[in-house]
Structures are given as structure tokens and as C-alpha cells.
Amino acid sequence: MAPHLVQPGWRFWRQAACTLGASVQHRTWAGTPRIPRPGSLWGATTTSPRICRSGSSTSARAPEVTLTRERYPVRRLPFSVVSREDLEAFERVVPGRVITDPEVLEASNVDWLRTVRGSSAVLLRPRTSEEVAHILRYCHERNLAVNPQGGNTGMVGGSVPVFDEIILSTALMNQVISFHDLSGTLVCQAGCVLEELSRHVEERGFIMPLDLGAKGSCHIGGNVATNAGGLRFLRYGSLHGTVLGLEVVLADGTVLNCLSAPRKDNTGYDLKQLFIGSEGTLGVITAVSILCPPKPRAVNVAFLGCPGFPEVLQTFSTCKGLLGEILSAYEFMDAECMWLVRHHLCLASPVQESPFYVLIETSGSRAGHDAEKLNDFLEQVLRSGLVTDGTVATDHMKVKALWALRERISEALSRDGYVYKYDLSLPTERLYDLVTDLRVRLGPQAKHVVGYGHLGDGNLHLNVTSEAFSPSVLDALEPYVYEWTAGQRGSVSAEHGLGFRKRGVISYSKPPEALRLMRQLKALLDPKGILNPYKTLPAQA
Amino acid sequence: MAPHLVQPGWRFWRQAACTLGASVQHRTWAGTPRIPRPGSLWGATTTSPRICRSGSSTSARAPEVTLTRERYPVRRLPFSVVSREDLEAFERVVPGRVITDPEVLEASNVDWLRTVRGSSAVLLRPRTSEEVAHILRYCHERNLAVNPQGGNTGMVGGSVPVFDEIILSTALMNQVISFHDLSGTLVCQAGCVLEELSRHVEERGFIMPLDLGAKGSCHIGGNVATNAGGLRFLRYGSLHGTVLGLEVVLADGTVLNCLSAPRKDNTGYDLKQLFIGSEGTLGVITAVSILCPPKPRAVNVAFLGCPGFPEVLQTFSTCKGLLGEILSAYEFMDAECMWLVRHHLCLASPVQESPFYVLIETSGSRAGHDAEKLNDFLEQVLRSGLVTDGTVATDHMKVKALWALRERISEALSRDGYVYKYDLSLPTERLYDLVTDLRVRLGPQAKHVVGYGHLGDGNLHLNVTSEAFSPSVLDALEPYVYEWTAGQRGSVSAEHGLGFRKRGVISYSKPPEALRLMRQLKALLDPKGILNPYKTLPAQA
């Protein structure tokens, strides 16, 4: 295949992006207050005049999700049942914010992927950590189970009740407490929406250290509780490094205030780390202190076509060398992903058809320098044949348009049929082997077997679709995928967590000694097990 | 004061650094197998022909350090005493590596600052985690206390025994297990010396994410156990973010293998975080997996004189804006620090006398771009009067020479008399107030009250010297310094930890609920309290 751009040049590449026009949408969810549900609002923001072959975006209300307790083999633990007296007690703690209307509760009982559904009869909306402390103290005494809930955007059913757990929402705990202009330290309540925080700090010359497709809905408390990864992980690292302090309410109502944390603090054990990624099972995060990096002055996105996976890897090595400190994302997707976003969402590829596509983002402090680095990199990868076609965008809207191709894959998949989702960490050089392997293994049973994800972090999103749920497809996938991953000493949940749906597979990535210690920690911090039960740790025999 | 360089230019600045010549030494400790003790090897590597006024570098063997149990009010806990049978049992586990020679033991019983001294009669040198597991299982059964020891370079007496604890050295656990060229993941045993690891990964195009003055002696296991900060913290962040996995032997001999960790892993609680910064009190780290950043192609160091502390702060803001992603260190020192390094170590200032000095390091992938950014920054700060004089180095040896001015302050202080050392996190804008405040408070009681440190991280090293130890100086300093810090919601130990000497001050930075949870974690992981007793957590009433 002859290179599309025979004489790659910065301006020329930039122009190419401009031709994308209306066929590329904005990032999913960006700017919307809630995540659209499949079958309802999906695709409502499409501005393209093209007609897609998939008609699901205009379909009627989705069918009801089966109750978790009916679909999965799980037994209710002996917690108390919420009584009228309990509701009255809650009403005294959070007056007017005890929700029992089944219509309102529905959205909080079902996860956004519509795979699990609880039957909670009460949702509480505290505004302060003191209110959370009151609620938990009460629930602890009464042995009532509690399901902490942020934006309910999780991927593993961790954010909704399994049975009748009380839903404790952080939605009204949405105040920014402080922002420090010199250090970039943001302190805020747990219910602040990530996108609103982004706006807040961007007005002050900073950015949030994490970014997710779900940013229009997800809460920072939920991000921390699930140790969310996302699109800036490659550059700014894990929340274990960027979260400076937390305020957490423990199961018995004790307020653990480790919020006023400076950048460096070695006074005793770093307790906040326990709660990062513990999915609300060890305590309820009520406030977060987080370090925000300075806002880059220049952002470029290159969208490239590669002839094979080895070239995707070599392009990554080359780009680490030539882009160095300005590299902020290295994402990849295969040709089937591109087919899906075109077919279901009318998003056209901005480059020639290729077996693989790579999205590279740079963020830097000096546009001219960044452009020079990027151009040198592009010249090299084009000249060497690692890349066969490409386009670059610097304009904010064009950048978002290119990102949409990568970010909306998940949406396109959900329109393709029943989706089997895996979020794996694997050695980068073997990242794609599992995808090709599964295509052979599943044969015509699967509609699509696709691979995409955060290649720069060794994180593969492996997705398989079939017309409808099929036990035989599932049997072909599991435990095969987990065993394959364990064989590579990878992680069976890179960034999505375990929640309810993946808690049974923890042992593929963690030894028995680790699981035992996790259980001991749970027993220490939540002896009655009232916090987000049936999540993270597997059921005990 | 007129700027020294009326027409600042890149090449000109570089030349200025070359004039430093022989009067600036290499980094302290770099390349030496052990840290020199004050009064013995100090200054032995000086190449300067100048005669220093201080004669301590040639003094005879230092006087013996008082035993900790005699100097501090601490009571031995009811552990067993090592018997002949115990020694025989150890000999079976680590044959030929059970050290009881008092001459050899002396170095391991005394901390390098010579402030604390234990009386251990046995030092064990395991080579594998299995041997560590055997030892701990035995000690746990026999109720024998154990003091894990790495390079013994800690600042708070955490690495030496208080009474007769068995010293468990990681010195022979010094093998690199693997290095992954694409991801930069290094896996190694805990006893690897930081400088040797640096060499290992630098040969492969990477650097360690941390760097310390003590790198020639300190062990990576000790770095992780103390959550070491150091010189690259500003750029690469905390070990909580860069450590990917750990192998830890628990108090009862259980091997907790969380070593084969990919970049992203959300399968359950992140157990390794518990051990980072726990100073060997919760488990013995036996192997480390750590993420190494790519080696920068260009490193520049600028050494600048500032007319006041407000200018130091404004220079920091300016430099964050103009240097952006290539900024890798922002250190400051006051005029008294410069006096001390000149007076005691014959290090001459490369710039005109100033109230404050700033050391700025950039690390980037493209020398030309970095030089341009740095030059623009320097022009701006000189023109605006934020900086009155400066010099820049790019050559490796000159870079080291400039760093020596900052890194050897601690050594110069130790030659000035008795040193009262504080390592505080404070809001950056108030960082220096405490120093000026203490100068007034102490008056002529103190020889010197100096402030220096990692300003970019809000970390002040506050040091006070007097001719000899003086209870009245100590009374004037404590608890005043801790109360002042707590009043600013700072940390009373930013990076040095608590160890033995600071464990009593934890409550200035942590609330009672946090301390209670720390004690519960200690009791859970080490129910008999055999691991590094008398450290980190305050004695219980």
C-alpha cells in the first residue's frame, strides 16, 4: 500500500484532519449530565446526515434487566431488612433526601451496561461526611447493608445493589473545597463529577490527572474507589500516585480524615492507599485531595494506520524515543473496531483502511517544539513503513473527533449484539495474540472478536459479540481467557476492577496468601460486612 | 545588584559553569560502597587544593555512640533472647552467613548519623526470600524480635536495632531478576544498591524513578520500605505510583508474592501499598518490581541567585510555565547553607552572593528544544529581576558539581556542630517563614538556622546547629517546630519517615482515628510485634 501522504509535513497533516468534517462525532458522554443508555439516547448527538445500517439507535425502551439474584447464583447474607423505623431514622439524618419512589430508584438499581439489577427500596442522598457518618453508624448498629454509589458508570456491576442494600449516593456531595494555584492541589467532595472538576481546574491553568469516556457522569469518589485508569494513565500514572489525601467514613461511622495531605508525607502507614481501588468495600470515600498537572499549552493527536501488530509495537518504541516527555496517550484499535464504529455509528475512518490503527496524543508546553518532534516522528514511521497512512489534528474539535473513533468503540460494540467484555493487562508484545487466537477458537460462533485499548499501558480491551447471549460462546471464552492471561502473568482486570461480576476470577491474578490478607483487611475494617457486600472478594464457601 | 550576565545566552551560561573547576566536588557518596562516617572518611574525596577552616575531616575515630537504651526512655518488650540453639538453627538456614563478630556487628548496630545504637549480637545474611521466610517463621515461633536492614542510610534511626533485635540484612539479596526493554519494568531483589540499579537500567536506555544522595549505599528494598522521596520526586512522583509489585515476607514467614504486577492491575486491594513506607514494621520486602522512565537525552542544570524568598517562589511559578514537562528538579538553599558548604567543604559558589539560591534541573528528549526553553526562562527571570545571577551546566561532570552544592549541605551541617534536623512538608508560600521565625526565637543560642530542600514538592529541610547538644535549644525547638507545622496542616516528616526517633510526633500530622487504624494493621500483620519493634508507631502507654 503506497503511503497516502508522500511528503509528510506538519501543515499538510493538519489539513487532512479538517476533512473529517461532520462524519466524526464528539466524545461519547462529554458534556452530557448522564450516560446515555443503549437503546435510548445512544447516538442522539450524531450530527452526520449519513444513514447507518444499524437501526438500534432509534429502538424503543430497552427490555427490563433481569434481577441479579435471579440471574446469578448468589445468596443474600443475613443483613437486616429496612423497616419503617429505619426510614424515619434516615429522614431525621437527611431530611427530604430519603428516596423510596420506585421510578427514581430504578436508575440506581441497574448498572449502565444493563447487566445487573438490584432491588433496593431506599436511596439516601447525604450532603456532608457527617451525614454519611450518621448513616453508617446507624446501619452498622442495625446490621443493614449499604451500597455506596457515585455516577454508576462502572463496568463490573460494582456500583449497584445485588439484593436490597441501601443505596448511599454521593450525588449531592458535589462541592469543591479548595484549589491551590501554586501546587495544583484540588480538594473536593466525593460526588463532584469528573468533567465539572476538569472545567474547574482548567479555568485555573491545570487539568485533572485522569480522563475517562464516562467523565460527564462519573464521580471523583467513584474514580478513586475503583482506581480508575483511563486515557491519561500513560502520562500521569495511577491514582495511587496522584491522590494526595482522602476522607473516608468507615463501616462503623468513624470519620478517617487523611485529607489535608501535603505532596509528601511519611508519617506512618499511608492509609488512604487501602481505599483506592477497594470499590467501597472497606469504607466510603467522602472527600478527595488530588494533584492536578499544569494544563498543556499544545495538544496534538495523530491517527495512523499500521500494516500489522508488530508495526504497532515498533511505532510505540519509536514514538517513546522521539516524542519522549510530550507523549500523553498511545491507543490502538484493530480493523474490526473501525468497521464497528463505521457500521453502527456512522463514523468514517480519517485514514486509508488498515489492519490496525493507532491514536497518539502529545501534550506539551510549547506548540512549535511539539510539532517538530511529532513531525520528525511521523516522517520516520512513514519512511520506514511502520505506518502507511495518517492524519494529525491540533484544533480542539478535531482532536475530540479523532478521539471519538477510539472512545466510542464500546458503544458500537453494544449495538452489535451481546458483548462479552474482558479488560486485561498483558505483556505488550503478546497483547494481540489472544485476539487472533480467539478468532480461531470461536470461529463462526462469534460475530466479532475485537481488540483495542491502552497499548502504552499494556492494557487490552478484548470484546466478543454474538447475536444473543450464548452459553456455548461463554464456555469457549471462560475460563480460557483467564487462564491464557494468568499464563502470561497478566491481570484479569486491568482497570475495570472486580465489582460483582468479576470477583470470582481474582485467583487468576492473585495468590491465595494475597486473597487471605484481603479477607483479613475486610474483616478488620468492616467486621459485619455491611459495606458493598457481594463485591470485590469472592463468596466464601 | 546588577545582573552578572548582562546578555544571557545559552553558550555563555554554559561556559560560566566550566569556571567552577576543582573547587566543586562530586556528589557525596556517589560511587562509594559505604557512606563515609563523620570524622572518618568525610571529605576524603576532595580534590581541591584549598585549605578549609574546618579541621574535622582529619580528626581521629569518632567517639562511641551512646546506646539507645541508655540515651532514650525506652523499655525492652518481652521478646525472647537469642540462645545458642537459635544460632545453630540460623546456621542451618543460612550456613556461613550468621554473623556474631562484634567488630562486624558494630556498623550494623549504629545508624549513619551516629545518633542511635543497638546491641544486637547477631546479623543474618539471607540470599533468597525462602531463607527470609525460614528465618521469620522461626523467629515468630520463638518470639524473637527482628530488625530488617538495607543500606542503613535512614535519617530517623529506623534501620538499626534499639535493643538486641536480630539484624536481618538484605545485603546478599542483590540480584537483578529481569528487565523489560519495552515497558521499562525492572524486577530485582531487595538488597540491590540503588546506584547499581541505576547503572543497570541506564545501560538499557532507562533511569531509576528515584535518586538520592545515599544512592551508593541504600538498598531498593529500604527505599521502598521508607517510601524514599529524593531528587526525582518532582518529575516522577512517589514510589506509591512507580512501584508495580512487591514480594514481602510477613511476620509469620508467609511469602506474599505480589511481584509479577503489570502496569495496571485492579484485581482486589492493592496490598503492596501497605508495605511502601511502613519501615519494615509490617513485613520484610524481599523483591521489588518498579517502573523505570526512559533516560533523558539531555540534562541541564541551572544554578541561580535570588534576591529574596518571594522571588524564589515566583521563579518557581515562571519555570513551571516555561519549562513545563522538562522540569525535573527545583531545589533551593539559603545563604547560610552556601556559607556552610564553603566553610566546611571548600565548595565555592558559582554565582554572586545572594540571599537565596535555586537549582533547576531539566531532563528532556531533545537538547535543542530544552536549551531553547531554558534560555527563554532564564532571560525572563533575569530581565524581571527574579534572578540576579546564574550559571548553567549541561556537561555530566559540571551537572554533578552543581548538584554537589545542594546535596552536600547535610554533610557541611554535620561538621558545624550538633545538628537538630527537621524534614517538613509545608505550604510552599510559607515554607521559609519558619526559618526566619526560628532565627529570632533562638537568637545566639544557635550557631546556624538554615533552610533548604525540595521546594518544588513543598519539602523544607530545616536544620539548626549548636556547638554541642543543648537541652535548652531542644526545648526552644520542640514541640514548637511540630506545632508550627501542624498549624499549617503540614507533615512533620515529609520524606525521612518516623523510624525510632520521630515516632513520638506522629500525632502532629495524623488524627487519633488514623493512629488507631495503624495499630490495628500492625496487630493484624504482626500480632507478636516482632518486626522492627519500637519503630514508626509511638509506644503505647
Automatic annotation (TrEMBL), chains A, B:
Q: What is its EC number?
A: 1.1.99.39
- Composition-biased stretches, type Polar residues, lie in 43-60
Tell me the GO BP annotations in alphabetical order: malate metabolic process
Write down the superkingdom of origin. Eukaryota
**Entry cofactors:** FAD
**Which reactions are catalysed by this chain?**
(R)-malate + A = oxaloacetate + AH2
Q: Which GO terms describe its molecular function?
A: (R)-2-hydroxyglutarate dehydrogenase activity; FAD binding; metal ion binding
Q: Which keywords does UniProt give here?
A: FAD, Flavoprotein, Metal-binding, Mitochondrion, Oxidoreductase, Transit peptide, Zinc
InterPro entries with a match to the protein in the record:
FAD-bd_oxidored_4_C, FAD-bd_PCMH, FAD-bd_PCMH-like_sf, FAD-bd_PCMH_sub1, FAD-bd_PCMH_sub2, FAD-linked_Oxase-like_C, FAD-oxidored/transferase_4, Oxid_FAD_bind_N
In residue numbers, the region (Disordered) covers 35-62
Compartments where located: Mitochondrion
**Gene Ontology terms, cellular component aspect?**
mitochondrion
Pfam families membership: FAD-oxidase_C, FAD_binding_4
Give the matching PROSITE patterns.
FAD_PCMH
Residue span, FAD-binding PCMH-type domain: 116-295
What this protein is reported to do is described as:
Catalyzes the oxidation of D-2-hydroxyglutarate (D-2-HG) to alpha-ketoglutarate. Also catalyzes the oxidation of other D-2-hydroxyacids, such as D-malate (D-MAL) and D-lactate (D-LAC). Exhibits high activities towards D-2-HG and D-MAL but a very weak activity towards D-LAC.
What family is reported?
Belongs to the FAD-binding oxidoreductase/transferase type 4 family.
**Name listed for the protein in its UniProt record:** D-2-hydroxyglutarate dehydrogenase, mitochondrial
The organism is Suricata suricatta
